[in-house]
Amino acid sequence: MLGLMPGEIASDETGWLLSPHQHMPLLQQRRALMLVNRVRLFALLFAILTPLWIVVDVLALPSGLWERLATLRLLSTVAFTALVLWYPQDGRLKRAYQGMSMLFAIPTLFYIGSHMLMTQYHLEGVSAAVGTGYAFLPFVLLAAIAIFPLTMLESLAFTMPVLLAYALAWTLDWSVASWPSFGGEFWLLSLLAAVSSLASISQLAFIIALVGQTIRDPLTMAFSRRSGIEMLELQLVNAERNQLPLAIAFIDLDHFKGINDAFGHAAGDKTLKLLVQQIQQNMRRGDVLVRWGGEEFVLLMPNTDRVQGEVALERLRQNGLGLRPDGTPLTASIGLAERLADKCNARRQLVELADARMYRAKQLGRNQVVSR
């Protein structure tokens, strides 16, 4: 599949199609919102269509059977309606998983219950045809997997319960079950699950490529300012929820205008690219580098207190930020702010505080870190 999408998925992102644990927070948030939106859409469709089928049951099935099936349908409709009206959208992947689990659990339980009721009646003609329609519900559920952008592990987690429910329904009718028929249908159901999972993973690959194009600065490949603001807000929420430190550094290159004036903008662009590469080589895995504008960058350092931030930035400064076109060292003035030490949980205020300290570093002679 990766061979069919050259240039869309980077080599270090292939694991993102297998498991969600490697996804960046921004991708997790956007995908969680997308999953919940699609859960609510499908729940709305089921809430409308489920009670409408009662009319067909009344016309085709025996009175005792359709009444009990109608009860199951009305209970399912209430559950689907509640999912549409009251399920929250908070951008958390765990919440999206819960919503999908509820969406698939409701019709799966309905399928098992309806199958148990059907086995108590001997249906013929039109009644048998309508009753057979109930057996196709697992096929509908597995086909629906294709509209959700899921990793391989997530697809397995949501398709396996449907397959197991189908097998369970057949074992409940052990005495009259046609095992060759079950084997053929189960094979077809498994094949549908595989195709839907492939479509789901392909959709995720497209979203990863699309998000990667929109959240990166096209010149330096650092995160763009807009995506950086979103990630900072996400990290602030997580840090406040778990009472963790969060440091941000405002980095401004010293005398960068002189590079553009003396050597041209092409040389300035090359200098910025090399700067980002140098910083990324010294970053931790969880750190995030954002191009804030021009020669200004913001470095987000989650789970990092003021002292740890000072040490990391001094190490970065000592290792060097690269060279100017004339071969002299490239330096920067850096301001550091940390949410616990500075008693600041607001995104705008934290950035402004780091920015003010960066200007103080310039006033003190540049090429240094100011954190107080």
In a nutshell, what does this entry contain?
This protein is an alpha+beta fold and 372 residues long. The protein is built from 13 helices and five strands. The protein has a five-stranded mixed sheet, with helices on both faces.
Explained architecture:
The chain is an alpha+beta fold and 372 residues long. It folds into 2 domains: 2-215, no CATH class; 225-370, Reverse transcriptase/Diguanylate cyclase domain (Alpha-Beta Plaits). It has helices at 25-52, 54-60, 63-86, 93-118, 126-133, 137-144, 152-171, 179-215, 225-242, 256-263, 265-282, 306-319, 347-363; strands at residues 246-253, 288-293, 296-302, 332-338, 369-370. The chain has a 5-stranded mixed beta sheet, sandwiched between helices. β2 (288-293) and β3 (296-302) form a beta hairpin. α3 packs antiparallel against α4, α4 packs parallel to α7 (152-171) and α7 (152-171) packs antiparallel against α8 (179-215).
- Structurally, the number of domains stands at 2
Number of helices: 13
Helix content: 55-70%
Form type: elongated
Q: Report the strand count.
A: 5
Output the structural class.
alpha+beta
Average pLDDT rating: 88
Radius of gyration (Å): 28 Å
Furnish the topology, listing elements before pairings.
Blueprint: H1 25-52, H2 54-60, H3 63-86, H4 93-118, H5 126-133, H6 137-144, H7 152-171, H8 179-215, H9 225-242, E1 246-253, H10 256-263, H11 265-282, E2 288-293, E3 296-302, H12 306-319, E4 332-338, H13 347-363, E5 369-370
Parallel strand pairs: 4-5
Antiparallel strand pairs: 1-3, 1-4, 2-3
Helix pairs in contact: 1-3, 1-4, 3-4, 4-7, 6-8, 7-8, 10-11
